[in-house]
């Protein structure tokens, strides 16, 4: 039996796709092994969100080829899509496939003859209009399932290469989404995370549905207790949207709302489609309808031309929003994007300094968020035992909780009183009240 390893670098969408690719091979009788093992076929789902992502992708390709010099190495994903010639030149690569046609991967690998050298199947993605279905039927973790409902992005933020890697927005048909959610529920999953490259755009291409529609429909699936989204944007959060979230009890009161900068000048230069006033309004609406809501975010520091004053505004805005977690990214120029062409790039030392300063702001806010929950009783969906008799799970507003129990709590929702916290972790006890 031939052995295949399918591995994703980068985001949750890549991880979903790599799981689905592994299943396609398994259905054809291949044995699925880890990327650390010796395999006959390696499928590497590359990431190109930063130049560092490119480097990691190249390193992994070389590593797997060293593990088995006879293996067929197929590279798929964003880096392969945007730089196919560069991929072809990486030693060890046999097939370059890009972000399209992943569903045909078994066929392409089986057809491959080593004497052909490196074969490239990368085609234009910028005019793609159809969502390519890839499904996951079996998952290792049986609590939370990521579900890809959308692909592509048409926002063209000035620092981001993803619209060129993934093409325009394409939404998965609602009936396909629902069929997969039902199957996940039948397999015991209690939580689904609706994921995509730009989930906020869900439905805009189909015109017959919207993000709110699909949330309502997923909400109707019996057996699913919790619904989350990978990331949304402030423009989605209207009064109607926030009110609807509060009326749908399965929707978790945690939203990842990308901010990227808390300075209007920088937001404009980033070509983000909102300003701080709009963002502030979105957070206020979420807080109005969901009093315990957690808002997490991503912020880039050291964007070209960002002055000390711009950075100060950004940090002040983050404090004002009271995020429960901030993912801080020092700006990294990405070839092929307008921001990378700018002459006013900042030195790494400035980016590092601002990054440390904003991480410190984020840590303070996270502590404040955890502290505010001490004494509260909250439902926790337990996922797994982390040590003997200690279980880990999450509240609806995405606090990670550890609690002791003599029983197996995996995949069980129980009320937990939050007693204290340590680092990013809340410590609690299971209670019946
Ligand atoms: S919204 Fe902006 S940052 Fe996000 S994938 Fe699209 S272009 Fe990139």
Automatic annotation (TrEMBL):
Q: Quote the Pfam families the UniProt record gives.
A: Radical_SAM (PF04055), UPF0004 (PF00919)
Q: Required co-factor?
A: [4Fe-4S] cluster
| Domain MTTase N-terminal: start-end pairs | 2-114
Extract the Gene3D superfamilies matched here. Answer: Methylthiotransferase, N-terminal domain (3.40.50.12160), tm_1862 like domain (3.80.30.20)
Q: Which part of the chain is the Radical SAM core domain?
A: 139-368
Which keywords fit this entry according to its UniProt record?
4Fe-4S, Iron, Iron-sulfur, Metal-binding, S-adenosyl-L-methionine, Transferase
Note the superkingdom of the native organism: Bacteria
Question: PANTHER family in the record, alphabetically?
Answer: RADICAL SAM PROTEINS, THREONYLCARBAMOYLADENOSINE TRNA METHYLTHIOTRANSFERASE
Fetch the NCBIfam families from UniProt: MiaB-like-C (TIGR01579), MiaB/RimO family radical SAM methylthiotransferase (TIGR00089)
| The protein's name | tRNA (N(6)-L-threonylcarbamoyladenosine(37)-C(2))-methylthiotransferase MtaB
Give the gene that encodes this protein. mtaB
């Amino acid at each position: 039996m031939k052995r295949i390893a399918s591995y994703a670098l980068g985001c949750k969408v890549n991880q979903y796709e790599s799981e689905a690719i592994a299943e396609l091979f398994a259905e054809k009788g291949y044995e699925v092994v880890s990327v650390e093992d010796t395999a006959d076929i390696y499928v590497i789902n590359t990431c190109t969100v930063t130049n560092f992502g490119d480097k990691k992708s190249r390193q992994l390709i070389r590593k797997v080829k060293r593990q088995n010099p006879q293996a067929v190495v197929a590279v798929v994903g964003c880096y392969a899509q945007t730089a196919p010639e560069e991929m072809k030149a990486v030693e060890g690569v046999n097939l370059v496939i890009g972000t399209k046609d992943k569903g045909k991967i078994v066929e392409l690998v089986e057809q491959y003859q080593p004497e052909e050298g490196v074969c490239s199947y990368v085609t234009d993605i910028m005019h793609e209009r159809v969502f390519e279905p890839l499904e996951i039927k079996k998952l290792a973790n049986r609590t939370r399932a990521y579900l890809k409902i959308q692909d592509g992005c048409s926002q063209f933020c000035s620092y981001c290469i993803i619209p060129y890697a993934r093409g325009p927005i394409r939404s998965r048909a609602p009936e396909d989404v629902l069929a997969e959610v039902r199957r996940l529920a039948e397999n015991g999953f209690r939580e689904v995370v609706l994921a995509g490259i730009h989930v906020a755009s869900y439905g805009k291409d189909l015109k017959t549905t919207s993000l709110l529609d699909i949330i309502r429909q997923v909400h109707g699936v019996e057996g699913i207790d919790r619904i989350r989204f990978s990331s949304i944007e402030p423009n989605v959060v209207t009064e109607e949207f926030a009110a609807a979230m509060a009326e749908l009890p399965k929707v978790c009161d945690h939203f990842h709302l990308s901010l990227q900068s808390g300075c209007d000048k920088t937001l404009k230069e980033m070509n983000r489609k909102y300003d701080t006033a709009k963002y502030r309004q979105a957070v206020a609406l979420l807080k109005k309808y969901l009093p315990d809501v957690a808002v997490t975010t991503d912020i880039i520091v050291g964007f070209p031309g960002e002055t000390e004053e711009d950075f100060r505004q950004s940090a002040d805005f983050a404090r004002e929003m009271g995020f429960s977690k901030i993912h801080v990214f020092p700006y990294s120029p990405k070839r092929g994007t307008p921001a990378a062409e700018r002459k006013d790039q900042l030195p790494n030392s400035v980016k590092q300094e601002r990054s440390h300063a904003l991480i410190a702001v984020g840590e303070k806010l996270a502590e404040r968020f955890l502290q505010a929950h001490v004494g509260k009783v909250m439902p926790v969906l337990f996922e797994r035992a982390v040590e003997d008799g200690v279980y880990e799970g999450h509240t609806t507003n995405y606090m990670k909780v550890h609690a002791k129990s003599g029983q197996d709590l995996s995949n069980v929702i129980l009320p937990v009183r939050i007693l204290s916290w340590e680092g990013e972790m809340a410590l609690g006890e299971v209670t019946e009240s």
